[in-house]
């Protein structure tokens, strides 16, 4: 019972500050300290969410945004992962491709929005391309770094035990690089949502960002705040999922054993 209580409290502690902020926010709004035209009360935002959910509008926009985010993440993440593996494992590939990738990485991908609109218009392809581009480089950099940072002593030990080729990669190199790869995935998830927010607010006819921009035109502050909170919640959810898989994949690691 004590272990269960401790586990429950441990899970609640990270939500303590957000809960306090929401309570203070509600009190200030209802007491008139903060004008509802500037910052509507959390209860008003909740009412707006219920009304939009009943009409089906909320579900539609959330689904569209999730589809864009996941599609862009899978495309960009896969390309970044493969490039990181190839350049990390093969010196010739590194010499041929790494400099070009690093040069492209220094260009802010959101600065390419005007060019992307000219290429793809304002359809789904433009948004997915921007998300994929934003996700690609963090995954690539951390995968490449993880492969390069594998302990040389472990590689030598693997050779002593007769490991080479695929067996060396599967038993030594990939597990050694996995921690860095997963950090890159967690970082790229944050970039994914940031990119999607910008893409949806600039040119879109659906999605959470479109919902926020439409609400702005009608001065619906509760819907605007709802959109912002949705992005925050989905960002937290995606990070929690990444951390879950991180603990599962690295349960052999001493640091993650201590956490569990």
TrEMBL record:
Its main location: membrane. It is a multi-pass membrane protein. It holds the Pfam family BPD_transp_1. The chain crosses the membrane at residues 12-28, 62-90, 102-122, 128-147, 168-185, 191-211, 223-245. One of its GO terms (cellular component) is plasma membrane. Residues 62-242 form the ABC transmembrane type-1 domain. InterPro entries: MetI-like, MetI-like_sf. Signal peptide: none annotated. Keywords: Cell membrane, Membrane, Transmembrane, Transmembrane helix, Transport. GO terms for biological process: alkanesulfonate transmembrane transport. PROSITE patterns: ABC_TM1. It is found in: Cell membrane. PANTHER family: ALIPHATIC SULFONATES TRANSPORT PERMEASE PROTEIN SSUC-RELATED, ALKANE SULFONATE ABC TRANSPORTER-RELATED, MEMBRANE SUBUNIT. Belongs to the binding-protein-dependent transport system permease family. This is ABC transporter permease subunit. It comes from Heyndrickxia coagulans (Weizmannia coagulans).
